[in-house]
Structures are given as C-alpha cells and as structure tokens.
Design brief:
Chain lengths: ~240, ~210
C-alpha cells in the first residue's frame, strides 16, 4: 500500500540536514507553503540555500526563516517586494548571499533539474550583467548563455488537494512554481487543504503525478499572508 | 496643454494591439493599458505567474489571493482563460509565443537596447521576468515618460544603466511622441499635441527624425 500522508509538518521535516538546498514554491501569497516553512524553522536546520521567486514578505514564512539566520544563500528573481525588509536588512549587512536569476531562467533551471538536463543555453540575459562569467555560444546568429540546472535536497510546495499516492491538483494561480519544483528535489513535501482517496481525483485533471511527491501534510486552514501584511506598515516599493 | 497624459499614452499603446494578440503588460504604468483595450476585440492578457485570459481587478470583497497578477494584486479570469505552471508560463515568453509585451523603462537607446531592471544604485537588485520578456516576446514596446523626474532624457544614444536586453525595443510611447528605435536615430511616428520636432529633439538624448 502506498500512503504518503504524514501526521504533521514537523514529522515530515524532521530529517532536514544543515546545508540543505530547499526549493520553496509560491509567488506572492499564492502557492506559498507557509506552515511547512514554519515547521522547517522549528526543526532548526541551518546554512540553507533557498530557491524561491522572492525573498520573503512581512515577518512570516521565508522572512521568518531568514530572520532566524537559517538561510545562507538565496537564489531568486525578485527579492524586492512590498514587505521585504527582513531580506533587505540581512542583505545590506552581508549576512545572506544572493544569486539573482531571471524568472524564466530560474523556472527552467528547476525544470531542467527535474528532467535530468544539467545545463541549457538561453538568449535571456545574454550580454547583460546577469550573464557575467558564464559560458556563451552563438546559435542562429544570436548570443546565448549557458545556465546550469538546479537540483535540491528538499522541495516545499502547496497544492489544493492530494490523494494518498501524492497526486496533486492546484487552485488557480497558486499553481505557479509547485509542479516544477516537485520534480527537482530528492524529497518533495506538499501541504494541501484536503486529502482524498486514490480515484477521487479526475486523472485528466491531475497536474502533478504522485511520482514527484513523497510526503503529504494536511493543512486545512492555512495562514493568510494578505491578512498578516495588512497589519504591517508599508515600507519601500 | 502639451503632451499626452499617462492615460492617453496607455490608450495609444492599447489602440495598436491587434485582435487575437496574446499580450504581457509590465508592472506599473503598463498595467493601465488594460483599462484602455479597444472594445469588441479579443485580446488575451498573459500574467507571468501562470494566467492567460486575465481580467480586471475584482470588486470589493471578491478578492482571491490565489488569483493575482505579476504585481501580486488580485485579478479575475475571463471566459476562455487558463492556468499553468511557471515553466510553461515562461516557455510562452521565451519560446516566442507572446505576441507583444509592454514594459516601462529607465533608458532606451536608438539601437533598441533596454534598461529597466536596475537603476545602478545601491540596493537590492531584482529582475523578475523583464529579461525573459525582452529576449522572448515577439515585439517589445515601451510605455514611459520621455524624461526622468529630474528632466534627463530616457531616450538616448547608448544606455548607461545595466541592460535588460539588446536591440529588442521596437516602439516607445512617451508623453511627447511615439518613436521607433532605428539604429542611429529614433523615427518619430507621431507627435503629441503641442509638441514640435524642436521641442522633441531638445528632450531626447539621440537624433530624432520625423517619419509618419
């Protein structure tokens, strides 16, 4: 019998090692697995490399993980958001490294990691500061940059519904990085509002097949980042 | 009154989008283009976070934070719209499937080089999807004021800020004119009310030539 359900986020994340590379899904609040990130915070792993589109908002989730000094290095496309003061503070103090990747290159690096492709050429960022030091090559008369795949120890993602085999469906634009990140980690942990039995999800509608998912944690009523941010003063832009 | 208002600029850019086009609008000023799309056409808006067929913002109390745009603001989905993951979303840009993107700019050169991701100053760098759009959208159009707040020209011989892409811009809608980068000059397609070529040349950091 296949049963990927874990009793809690704490149980599902008990074995994360110091120095792990962690993919964290989400774009803004949509798709952000805040409860899993908080369980990682409680678990205590340090020296983490985190891959996320942004770099934390407000004081919860990834921002809290950075605040507690657990993140050594961020790989992201857009760390400058409306409430990114924690990352800003750590970055300016030299307490966190930043690798900036164009958003599509970031998504493709993760996709390639999940598909067993070690690197690929793209015209994105050719002849810009973000390709400095990278190999380049001409294809069809156009300059391309060699970008390396990202593979991770752990992926933390959020979906709407899972069955106990780990098949996933998402909700609206909360899908974003989830299906891509699920493919690129040795252990993929998903938080979902609802868990159902195999056969309950329409196989035509399953977005992430269970082969990419290892641990399923039910979080029926997740934290609202929008409600959290509404309580904070707005800083920067 | 000299020049176009921001809404008039957005309306001009919107008026040149053809029926059936898939269009990505950048964060900030370009978002206004959505308010001026010609009625009766089917123009499909793409949002980098995995939406085709993005609709206007929802009414008060109808916000759904699983349905947001690139600026993280709540939006809606039109009939025929779809959701997809990030690698597919950027394959649409990088694979040349997006007909048109409209972005803001710090600088545009007469060769079509674009600088719009880094002001070069200290601070946290952030690029988002700008370089993917610059490299992959079939046409790249810019909606921007003609000069900075300090009065410096944004349309220049050569960009001085970090590049987003090289030779990618094909049209600029500013408050003073509609211009196309043409290698060694900007070709002026249309002048705003009250603007003449002398005024435009004085406000532009590169040669300009009238070409209707």
């Amino acid at each position: 019998m296949i049963d990927k359900r874990w009793p809690s986020a704490a149980d599902a994340l008990a074995d994360v090692a110091d120095g792990a590379t962690v993919l964290i899904g989400g774009f803004g609040e949509a798709g952000t697995p805040t409860e899993l990130i908080h369980a990682l915070l409680d678990q205590g792993a340090r020296g983490l490399t985190v891959v996320n589109n942004n770099a934390g908002n407000g004081e919860i989730g990834l921002a809290a993980l950075i605040r507690e000094g657990r993140v050594r290095r961020m790989i992201c496309s857009y760390p400058r958001t409306s409430h990114c003061h924690v990352f800003n503070e750590f970055y300016r103090a030299g307490r966190i490294e930043l690798e900036l990747s164009p958003q599509g290159t970031l998504a493709e690096r993760i996709r390639a990691g999940g598909a067993g492709i070690p690197a690929f050429y793209t015209p994105t960022a050719a002849d810009t500061d973000l390709s400095a030091g990278k190999e380049t090559r001409m294809f069809a008369g156009r300059l391309h940059v060699l970008e390396e795949a990202i593979q991770a120890d752990l992926a933390l993602i959020k979906a709407e519904t899972a069955d106990r085999w780990g098949n996933l469906i998402y909700r609206k634009a909360a899908r974003n990085f989830g299906p891509v990140m699920a493919t690129a980690a040795r252990t993929t942990v998903v938080q979902v509002r609802r868990v159902v039995e195999p056969g309950d999800l329409d196989p035509e509608a399953i977005v992430t097949p269970g082969i990419f998912v290892h641990r399923v944690v039910a979080v029926t009523d997740p934290i609202s980042e929008a409600a959290h941010l509404a309580l904070l003063p707005r800083v920067g832009a | 009154m000299t020049g176009w208002t921001l809404d008039e600029m957005a309306a001009l850019a919107a008026g040149e989008i053809e029926d059936g086009a898939c269009v990505n609008l950048g964060i900030g000023l370009p978002e206004r283009v959505a308010d001026h799309l010609p009625p009766g056409l089917e123009i499909v808006l793409h949002s980098e976070n995995g939406i085709l067929g993005m609709g206007p913002r929802p009414g008060a109390g109808q916000e759904d934070f699983d349905l947001i745009n690139a600026g993280k603001k709540p939006v809606t989905l039109l009939a025929g719209g779809s959701y997809f993951h990030h690698a597919d979303s950027f394959a649409m840009m990088r694979g040349g499937h997006i007909d048109l993107c409209i972005m803001g700019a710090f600088e545009v050169s007469m060769a079509g080089d674009l600088a719009n991701w880094s002001s070069g100053a200290d601070g946290v760098p952030a690029v988002g999807g700008a370089m993917d759009l610059a490299a992959g959208a079939r046409r790249v159009r810019i909606l921007t004021t003609h000069r900075t707040r300090q009065g410096a020209p944004k349309l220049v011989r050569a960009i001085t800020l970090p590049a987003t892409g090289r030779g990618v811009v094909d049209r600029v809608y500013s408050d003073l004119a509609i211009l196309d980068p043409a290698g060694d000059r900007f070709l002026v397609r249309r002048l705003a009310p009250g603007v003449d070529m002398t005024m435009l040349a004085a406000a532009t950091g590169a040669p300009v030539e009238r070409r209707d």
